[in-house]
Amino acid sequence: MSEKLDKLRATLKKEQERRIKLNNRIAVLERRIQEEEAAEVSSMVRTANVTPEQLAALLRQSANTTPNPAALAAGSSSSRWSASRERLFIW
Fold first, then answer.
1. If I label 76, which of 25, 39, 50, 67 is the partner at 20 to 30 A Cα–Cα?
2. What is the 8-class DSSP label of residue 80?
3. How far apart, in whole angstroms, are the C-alpha atoms of residue 35 and residue 37?
């Protein structure tokens, strides 16, 4: 083979290895972002003292309309939401 082809093939192999490393790094970063998002959501739910039933109702409601935490609190027999909790869920 010619020297030029050998150089091109060597460069290609080097760049393919670089791409593999970058793809691995991207996957790690995406996983870390997903974990941090989950931690933030969990923290917000804990801070708002929301029951699993209230959270489920809020998520169902938000799929169709703008969420209304006051309506959830009024319809819930567990406990009333405070104004600070309502502010957490205003989109």
1. 39
2. P
3. 5
Give the H or E element holding residue 65.
none
Convert the pLDDT of each residue in 82-91 to its tens digit.
Answer: 444 454 555 4
> Is 72 in contact with 54 (CB distance < 8 Å)?
yes
Tokens (6 digits) for 35 = 């974990």
**Nearby residues of 51 by Cβ (< 8 Å), 6 or more positions away:** 76, 78
Lowest mean pLDDT among 36-50, 54-68, 74-88: 74-88
Dihedral of CA atoms 55, 56, 58, 64 in degrees, nearest 10, equals 160
